[in-house]
Write a structure and sequence with these properties.
- The chain has one domain: Fumarate Reductase Cytochrome B subunit (Up-down Bundle).
- The chain has 6 helices and no strands.
- It is about 60% helix and about 0% strand.
- The protein is an all-alpha fold.
Length: about 220
């Protein structure tokens, strides 16, 4: 059976849709939400946080759908860069992208659940961040109290919310790994784009057409 020249149109749609959503969340995470700590910072970012979480959930669902479709549909023959090392690197980057997207999204969702952000935004329960009575669950033994000093990004006066950094497996540690994974994902995306451009303009093998619409 002859292999198709392009991926299935549904896979093409999912590829570019997921890519768009990833860029949206990377932009929000890096340029809008990064370094917003404490109650005031989290409240100021409210609508962007809701979008960030909703997009993350959507990406997870679409990744699952894409995996099922990829298994069930025929695919073009593996592309080659004409070099065994580059071909191996391409495979590593490709699977690294899948893993990084999964890790970034899962860690973000874990933090949003642990901090109460997801429940507050989508389930209507009171967030642990914000003014009393839904403020920090306990600061200096006083439920719902705000930190004695404004949060400035250092661990010295970081709010000790439920599951916070000062507790084993704390939420802020998860958030730190979420950010690290996001920058790792960004680096892999850059490598992926550079590889596609190399194929398209240096090798001139029209690789990008494989992930676009047309006769298969």
């Amino acid at each position: 059976m002859e292999l198709p020249k392009r991926y299935h149109p549904a896979l093409v749609t999912l590829h570019w849709l997921i890519a768009l959503l990833i860029f949206v969340n990377l932009y929000l995470g890096i340029f809008t939400l990064r370094n917003r700590g404490g109650a005031r910072g989290f409240q100021a970012a409210g609508s962007n946080v809701a979008i960030h979480m909703a997009v993350g959930v959507t990406i997870l669902v679409l990744l699952l759908v894409r995996f099922i479709l990829r298994v069930r549909t025929s695919k073009p023959a593996p592309a080659t860069a004409g070099n065994k090392f580059l071909d191996l690197l391409a495979v590593i980057v490709h699977y690294g992208l899948y893993l990084a997207v999964l890790v970034v999204t899962v860690l973000g969702l874990v933090f949003s659940f642990q901090s109460g952000r997801f429940q507050s935004t989508f389930l209507g329960t009171q967030s642990q961040f914000g003014p009393p009575p839904g403020g920090f669950p306990a600061v200096n033994g006083t439920p719902g109290a705000q930190p004695a000093t404004p949060f400035n990004g250092s661990s010295a006066n970081r709010p000790d919310f439920a599951g916070g950094r000062r507790r084993p497996g704390g939420g802020f540690a998860i958030l730190a790994f979420h950010g690290l994974a996001a920058f790792t994902l960004l680096g892999l995306i850059v490598l992926h784009v550079l590889a596609a451009l190399y194929h398209q303009f240096m090798r001139r093998d029209n690789l990008i057409s494989r992930m676009w619409y047309g006769a298969r």
